[in-house]
Amino acid sequence: MISMRNVSREYRLDGGVITPVRDVSLEITPGEFVLLIGRSGSGKTSLLNLAGGLLRPTRGEVFIKGTDIWTLTDRQLAGLRAAVIGFVFQFPNLIPTLTVMENTLLPISFNTKGKKSEAYNKAVRWLEKLGMEKRLRSFPGQLSAGEQKRAVLARALMNDPEILLADEPTSDLDEQTEHEIMSVLNDLNAGGLTIFMVTHSSELIPQASRALRLEEGKLVGFAPA
What we know:
- The chain is α/β, with parallel strands linked by helices.
- The chain has helices at about 45-50, 75-85, 100-110, 115-130, 145-155, 175-190, and strands at about 1-15, 15-30, 35, 60-65, 65-70, 85-90, 165, 195-200, 210-215, 220-225.
- The chain has one domain (about 1-225): P-loop containing nucleotide triphosphate hydrolases (Rossmann fold).
C-alpha cells in the first residue's frame, strides 16, 4: 500500500544541514495497522508526511498503491491523496468559524458529484460513531481536546480513504478518551482500513499489527505487537 525506498529528507539551516529522515526503507501492506514510535524530534512527523506525499524527499522514492508519487503532476498527486488517504494531523486544524458539521463536510464539499443530503447523512454517521452527535453545531473553540480529535478523525474519513495517516491522534487525552479513539481505529482497521500512526506511547503497541521505532531519523528496530 505504501512503499518507501531509501528515503531521506534534508533542510539547510544557518549554513548547516538538518536531516530529520535518514535513508528509510519501509513497506506497509494493505490492512496493516503500523505504529511509528519515537521521542519528540526523532523525525516521526516528517516520515509520516513523506509517506503521504505532503513532503518531497531529498533522496529516495515513495510509492502509494504502486505509483511513484513524485512522477505525478501536482494536480494528479492532490487527486491521489484525496481519493486514497485520510490525514489526522497532530494539532487539530479545524476552521474556527465553521461548526463541527461544516468542518466534517469540508473534504466532500469539493466533490460536486454527490448529493448534499447524502454527504450530510454520512457526516452524521461518522460523528455519531465517534460520540459527537451532540456537538454538530458547536464551534471548535467550544470543544475539548478530545472532541477536537474526534472531529478531525470524522473529517479524515469522509472520503472513504484506503489509508489513514494519523499523527499523535491520542496525545493530550485522558485514558478513557484514548481508549475510545483507539477502539474506533481498531474497528476501522478490522474493516480493512490501512493505518500508519505516529505515537510516543509504547503502551499502544499491543493494539497494532506491528510497531517501528525511529531514532534521529533512522529506523533502528522493530517492536513486536
